[in-house]
Design goal:
Two copies of one chain form a homodimer.
Chain A lengths: L4 H17 L3 E7 L4 E6 L26 E8 L5 E10 L5 E10 L1 H12 L16 H16 L8 H13 L8 H8 L4 H12 L9
Antiparallel strand pairs in A: 1-2, 1-5, 3-4, 4-5
The structure holds a DNA duplex (30 and 30 nucleotides).
Protein name (chains A, B): Transcriptional regulator
InterPro entries (chains A, B): DauR-like, DauR-like_HTH, YheO
Organism (chains A, B): Herbidospora galbida
Chain lengths: ~210, ~210
DNA sequence: TCCATGGCTGGACTCTATGTCCAATCTGGA
DNA sequence: TCCAGATTGGACATAGAGTCCAGCCATGGA
């Protein structure tokens, strides 16, 4: 079934829709000729390829009907409410090739909507954390916690220690801040040259790692 | 453009997706050959048929690449965050026929999620805010919220508007970040020179404040 | 004690990014 | 149409980032 050329043609679309809508949407390809399911992505019911489509109501052969139906509501056996859309997909000659159905489980949305409407929807807007106001304090803090972790004062840190601290600072994008280098060098009690040396070593994970 | 046979082939799918996702999703068909937009449903930006696709990164001609990308995050000029999925759709011979992109505006979902997460998990404690990982996105966001506040697109902002945005960005210490100036200038659709001009005006509270 | 080694240092140097300035151009309004 | 003010690209000056190196410790082994 998977090697039906029609499935190959339409699969990427189905896969894309399924990926976009995450776990809450089921995508089904029907064969209008045999009225059976050809393929399913994200199945929500037990239906699978080969099962009957039960699409009787939409007549793919009526040329006057529109190609896209819905969204209309369906009800699953367990009570979940679905929004469904169907589309008749045609081959280059205009013949109905397959019928695509997308079924979206509305319950999570309805739950969310219920909660939202319970408030008057004043739409919470965070006041924006924005940027760290005192990034140099932050540097001191990173160095400080490391010092406390290993119990050695800054002056006694080993080369490896400084590399570790630098890794954290670099990770935290500290060096994207202007004039950060001298501050960090100061905090680590190291010269600017050394700082750049360590940094280079840190950022070149190749060569020279015989130490590991 | 509408009578391109490829558009006829794929239009029902696009229309279905657009119908299913209501007003919050944009569906775009790209021509991988000319790298231009062929058709758009539910347009969210000003792009239309014939405009360049700006899809450079996904190479439709690389046969080893997967056919479906995403979902990945995109940022609109006005700051809205999108979930995007792209799929390469092929003709019966396996040649890339068109590229389908579905862009879902996440802001309503995020607002809902924010409210929902406010229940449960009292006071999420982030383990060290550290630095903003993507500060340029932050810039986009500040510009974006302003644009939405005053309802004018970036291109139509007045001089005073730009001053106001700059004040916010300056307040947020954006210019303490390396290489921020060109990014901000770009976001405001203004040249570097102008940027510095506005900035100077902003930071000189003396003289010329007859306006207060 | 002496020497060898490896990391650290200051400083010179290059190059990129920042910020200033200006003449030419654009734009909106009288 | 013309004018005043805003905007622009580009030239320029300078500061900061990053590299390099010769010399200087400190450590540890002979």
């Amino acid at each position: 079934m998977d090697d039906d050329p029609r499935v190959r043609t339409w699969a990427p679309v189905c896969q894309a829709v399924a990926a976009l809508l995450g776990p809450y949407a089921e995508v089904v390809l029907h064969d209008p000729g045999t009225d059976r399911i050809m393929a399913v992505w994200n199945p929500m019911s037990a239906r699978g390829p080969g099962d009957p489509s039960l699409l009787g109501e939409l007549d793919a052969l009526d040329p006057s009907a529109p190609d896209v139906f819905g969204p209309y509501e369906k009800l699953l056996a367990d009570g979940r409410r679905l929004s469904s859309v169907s589309a008749i997909l045609r081959d280059p000659d205009g013949r109905a090739s397959v019928v695509l159905c997308v079924n979206l489980d509305r319950t999570p949305l309805e739950q969310a909507a219920a909660v939202l409407s319970a408030f008057g929807a004043p739409t919470v807007s965070r006041p924006e954390p924005l940027f760290e106001h005192d990034w140099s304090e932050r540097v001191q803090h990173v160095v400080g916690s490391y010092v406390r972790e290993c119990g050695r004062p800054v002056e006694r840190l080993t080369r490896a220690d400084r590399l570790a601290v630098l890794a954290r600072l670099d990770e935290a994008k500290v060096f994207a801040v202007r004039r950060a280098t001298p501050v960090v060098a100061g905090a680590l009690r190291v010269s600017r040259s050394t700082l750049y040396g360590l940094l280079a070593e840190l950022r070149a994970p190749n060569a020279k790692d015989h130490a590991r």
